[in-house]
Write a structure and sequence with these properties.
globular, 443 residues, alpha+beta, single chain, 5-stranded antiparallel sheet, 6-stranded antiparallel sheet, 22% strand
Length: 443
């Protein structure tokens, strides 16, 4: 189990692109940042921003939705807009409802450089390849095993008469992961059991170290039969252990809170409550096999239902509440259930040791660019670069079929061989020390 999105964000600035001298062709400054001092152009003379622009598909702009008049566009939304027969990409600088993305004074739209978006995607693709190859090469699958596979917080469902009247609170589950850097909980599915109405139920995911919510998830509840309706998140939701969970740098355990605001429920909607005391071990005689699942789950996380009065402006400005003011409600589940998996996770170790990935990332991205050029005849003869044949490009990549190994591909293999990250003994649960004592051998 790895948190690929977190790894991408951490490794993106490790190697940067050298900025184009022409102001009209420049990319976002964030893409030129380099923690290592290496640039992708330094890997090979043919890896240039001009050549990257050349391999961008002609229809790349169609990945952005077409502008729709009257639609409310949140800040940061991108769309394509055609004016005078010319189609351009625009980004909203604030929430927009009625302004067309035209170059008017004071317009909340700005022209967006989609080349930067393409360059970022090319870089991320190389990072993903480097990380996946590293994991396979070092055979870390054995160290990233699943510890708990798809377990729900509890079995069964509530009676239809067990409704909970809203009292203006933020309610849900406090989830405290085991204090181990190499272990991560993943939310596989979220279940809702509601009656009285259908509509959007907005869930918030907070962490005790952050003011703003880590995720906001809207679930369209449509079940009218009283049972649980299960939802699979569109993007993975991970709950790693984060030290300094009290927000002051102290290792307080780091608690996650999956919750909703009762004031935001659709009118007439009521949650159903399962009769279960979360503070004690389940009754084996009345719940069957639930006790074994509970014992396995509590090795890796502690779950406690809670409630706290919601501020009047919480819907408009959702912020982390005062943990000291929450009340634990051990016999409530507020119409929610969660299916989780727990696995060993080396994401934090990769992020903390990201500097050693610099050369591999540089050469992997460069190799991807050269191979794309080699396989695209329209790119190889464009006016922005010297004309090269496919065989010449492949020679630059793979070297000669016989003789001494050479080429960018050979340099990349050497960089992978030099990549070393020994994770043994770094964590008591997943990455335990594999020390079997001193071994002797005769010469």
């Amino acid at each position: 189990m790895i948190r690929l999105q977190d790894i991408q964000n951490a490794l993106l600035p490790v190697v940067g692109w050298q900025q184009d001298y022409n102001p009209q062709n420049q990319i976002d400054e964030a893409l030129t940042q380099s923690e290592s001092g290496l640039t992708f152009q330094g890997a090979h003379p043919l890896v240039t921003l001009a050549n990257v622009r050349a391999i961008m598909p002609d229809d790349y702009l169609y990945k952005y939705p077409e502008y729709v008049a009257g639609y409310m566009y949140p800040k940061g939304w991108k769309c394509r807009y055609t004016s005078g027969g010319v189609t351009k990409i625009y980004i909203s600088e604030r929430t927009v409802t009625h302004n067309d993305p035209a170059p008017n004074v004071g317009n909340p739209w700005a022209e967006y450089n989609m080349v930067s978006d393409f360059v970022r995607n090319v870089t991320i693709a190389g990072i993903n390849t480097a990380v996946q190859n590293f994991i396979q090469e070092k055979q870390l699958q054995q160290e990233t095993k699943n510890l708990l596979e798809r377990r729900t917080f509890f079995d069964g469902a509530a009676r239809l008469a067990a409704t909970i009247d809203p009292t203006g609170k933020i309610v849900g589950f406090e989830i405290v992961p085991v204090r181990a850097m190499g272990v991560t909980t993943k939310i596989e599915r979220i279940g809702l059991q509601m009656v009285g109405a259908t509509g959007t139920v907005r869930l918030y995911l907070f962490h005790s170290s952050q003011i703003a919510p880590m995720r906001v998830v809207d679930l369209e509840f449509t079940n009218t039969k009283g049972g649980f309706q299960w939802f699979t998140p569109t993007e993975p939701i991970y709950l790693p252990y984060i030290p300094g969970g009290d927000g002051n740098g102290n290792d307080a355990g780091g608690a996650w809170f999956l919750c909703y605001n009762q004031n935001e429920l659709p009118v007439g909607m009521r949650a159903l409550n399962v009769s279960k005391d979360w503070s004690v071990e389940p009754c084996q005689t009345c719940l069957g096999g639930s006790i074994e699942s509970w014992r396995q789950m509590t090795k890796y996380l502690q779950v406690s239902p809670f409630g706290i009065h919601a501020p009047l402006d919480f819907a408009a400005y959702p912020e982390m509440f005062d943990i000291g003011q929450i009340g634990y409600t051990n016999t409530m589940n507020y119409g929610m259930n969660v299916e989780i998996s727990v696995g060993c996770d080396i994401s934090d170790f990769i992020i903390s040791q990201r500097a050693i990935f610099a050369t591999v990332i540089q050469k992997q991205v460069a190799a991807n660019v050269l191979r794309t050029i080699a396989m695209n005849p329209d790119v190889r003869v464009n006016r922005n670069q010297v004309n090269v044949t496919r065989d010449e490009l492949l020679y630059e990549l793979d070297g000669a079929p016989t003789g001494r190994a050479s080429g960018l591909g050979y340099e990349l293999k050497q960089a992978y061989r030099a990549l070393e990250l020994d994770t043994r003994g770094l964590d008591r649960i997943c990455l335990q020390c594999n020390n079997h004592g001193v071994k002797y051998r005769t010469v």
